[in-house]
Design goal:
Strand content: 25-35%
Helix content: 10-25%
Largest sheet: 2 strands, antiparallel
Structural class: alpha+beta
Radius of gyration: 13 Å
Shape: elongated
Order of helices and strands: EEEEEHE
Oligomer: single chain
Length: 66
């Protein structure tokens, strides 16, 4: 049997609940970060000449399970 898995968690940055792929969601100290917050973080890092945090293409999509 196969299915899909989502992680529901509060964002480390803003505290809002969001769904993500537990294997690929960006996190800080093992705390997941929502798409809006990681986009804001990367914008600020880019402005400061720092490398962006990578965002996996499936970070906010369901993870297929077997």
């Amino acid at each position: 049997m196969s299915g899909y898995e989502l992680l529901m968690a509060a964002c480390f940055g803003c505290g809002r609940l969001f769904a993500s792929n537990p294997a690929h969601v960006p996190s800080y100290e093992n705390q997941p970060i929502c798409r809006n917050c990681i986009t804001l973080v990367n914008t600020k890092r880019r402005e400061q000449g720092l490398p962006e945090w990578p965002i996996h293409p499936d970070a906010y999509e369901p993870e297929e399970t077997l």
